[in-house]
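Run log // design_07
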């Protein structure tokens, strides 16, 4: 299914791009969260009308985004979560707002929570590669370490895939939702392996 992304989705595409995605990913994740709209003739025409304004805004913010990327990219950000003893599941969750606030506190760079490209909050200890979408031409990645109050990352956790495709949701939601999340995760991975992003943007 072709969709127009309203915000950046890791492994799928940037805001304003037209992307080919699995039907399940579009219907179960992107559309309900307002992250994309169907690439209908009407929506494509609206995108084309808005492109000049988008190009102008992007040109004005490019240098600032590059400066932020230099300061953020590759940084290790650590957040502390509460868990039961010797457990990796958090009481609560780490959200995009938490990550944005931590970046500002530790690096001194202000990042909008909407620039933190996660589909789901983080609900377990571990290490996460998190995409920060600073501009349609500029990305940064941070290494996010979610530890317990003693600094523990988890038993054998050394690296986890980007917190994008919903393994936490699959583990913690009711069975029907877990199946949907698992199917959507597979769709993201298959789509990314196939390199199936349409070049609707720059």
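design_07 sequence
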């Amino acid at each position: 299914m072709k969709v127009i992304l309203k915000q950046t989705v890791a492994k799928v595409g940037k805001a304003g791009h037209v992307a080919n995605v699995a039907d399940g990913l579009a219907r179960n994740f992107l559309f309900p969260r307002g992250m994309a709209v169907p690439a209908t003739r009407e929506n494509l025409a609206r995108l084309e009308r808005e492109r000049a304004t988008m190009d102008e805004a992007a040109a004005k913010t490019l240098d600032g985004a590059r400066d932020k990327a230099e300061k953020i990219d590759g940084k290790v950000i650590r957040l502390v979560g509460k868990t039961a003893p010797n457990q990796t599941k958090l009481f609560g969750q780490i959200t995009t707002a938490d990550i944005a606030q931590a970046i500002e506190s530790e690096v001194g760079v202000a990042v909008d929570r909407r620039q933190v490209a996660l589909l789901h909050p983080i609900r377990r200890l571990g290490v996460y590669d998190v995409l920060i979408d600073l501009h349609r031409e500029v990305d940064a990645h941070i290494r996010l370490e979610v530890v317990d109050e003693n600094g523990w990352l988890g038993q054998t956790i050394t690296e986890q895939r980007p917190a994008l495709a919903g393994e936490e949701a699959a583990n913690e939601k009711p069975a029907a939702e877990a199946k949907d999340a698992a199917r959507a995760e597979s769709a993201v991975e298959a789509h990314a392996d196939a390199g199936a992003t349409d070049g609707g943007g720059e």
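The CA atoms of residues 96 and 113 lie 5 Å apart.
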